[in-house]
């Protein structure tokens, strides 16, 4: 199954995996006329706050390269020697304005997409975070990728999030929350 990613590129979602690895950033060779492959990694998460009905989650909206608005979980690349957890906390705060504290690992998703010069195999590590401060804003996003941010009830995310693989991460978060109550 192929869909367009937040950056407008075609992506093929793979299964949710619990493996952890850093992207090498290296290219596989251009054998038999195939595009070289670059490994990328990101981290982000499901940041929750108590709401009148269960929990709300901070999500962001971005325009893909085709100009379509897509709602997704906040995420981004680790910087320097950041761990996935540190990158997730930083990216969530940059893209949503909400400071979060990690509660648990929710697993990883993998997908492929192609840009004109290469194919990208991307792994995104997700964490469940508790909101501990801040206010919703996109003003802290240094890349200005997010065009909107919103608190959405956890039970409504399945119909709002643009990507099936992120909806599966939210289902994992729902199960973790249910198991802890």
Describe this structure in words.
- This protein is of the alpha+beta class and 181 residues long.
- The chain is 19% helix and 42% strand.
- The protein has helices at residues 84-96, 157-160, 164-180; strands at 3-4, 10-13, 37-50, 55-63, 69-72, 75-76, 98-115, 118-134, 148-153.
- Strands 1, 2, 3, 4, 5, 6, 7, 8 and 9 form a nine-stranded mixed sheet that branches.
- The protein is globular.
- The protein starts with a strand and ends with a helix.
Write the layout of secondary structure elements.
Layout: E1 3-4, E2 10-13, E3 37-50, E4 55-63, E5 69-72, E6 75-76, H1 84-96, E7 98-115, E8 118-134, E9 148-153, H2 157-160, H3 164-180
Parallel strand pairs: 3-8
Antiparallel strand pairs: 1-2, 2-7, 3-4, 3-6, 4-5, 4-9, 7-8
Characteristics:
alpha+beta, 9-stranded mixed β-sheet, 3 helices
Compressed to H and E, one letter per element, the order equals EEEEEEHEEEHH
Span between N and C termini? 35 Å
Computed structural class:
alpha+beta
CATH architecture: Alpha-Beta Complex
Q: Tally the structural domains.
A: 1
Average pLDDT over all residues: 84
CATH topology: Nucleoside Triphosphate Pyrophosphohydrolase
Runs in which pLDDT lies below 50 for 5 or more consecutive residues are 1-32
CATH-defined superfamily: Nucleoside Triphosphate Pyrophosphohydrolase
Using the coordinates above, name the CATH class: Alpha Beta
Major sheet size, sense and barrel closure: 9 strands, mixed
What is the percentage of strand-forming residues? 35-45%
- Which range best describes the helical content: under 10%, 10-25%, 25-40%, 40-55%, 55-70% or over 70%? 10-25%
In total, the number of strands is 9
What oligomerization state is this entry in?
single chain
- Which value, in Å, is the CA radius of gyration? 16 Å
């Amino acid at each position: 199954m192929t869909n367009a990613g937040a950056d407008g590129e075609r992506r093929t979602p793979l299964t949710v995996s619990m493996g952890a690895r850093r992207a090498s950033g290296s290219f596989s060779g251009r054998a038999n006329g195939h595009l070289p492959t670059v490994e990328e990694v990101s981290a982000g998460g499901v940041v929750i706050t108590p709401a009148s009905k269960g929990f709300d989650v901070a999500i962001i909206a971005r325009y893909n390269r085709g100009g379509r608005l897509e709602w997704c979980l906040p995420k981004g690349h680790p910087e320097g020697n950041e761990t996935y957890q540190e990158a997730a906390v930083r990216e969530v705060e940059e893209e949503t304005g909400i400071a979060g504290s990690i509660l648990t690992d929710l697993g990883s998703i993998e997908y492929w997409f192609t840009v004109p010069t290469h194919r990208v195999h991307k792994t995104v590590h997700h964490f469940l975070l508790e909101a501990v401060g801040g206010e919703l804003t996109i003003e802290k996003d240094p890349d200005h990728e997010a065009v909107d941010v919103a608190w959405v009830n956890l039970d409504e995310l399945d119909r709002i999030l643009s990507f099936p693989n992120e909806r599966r991460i939210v289902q994992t978060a729902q199960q973790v929350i249910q198991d802890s109550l």
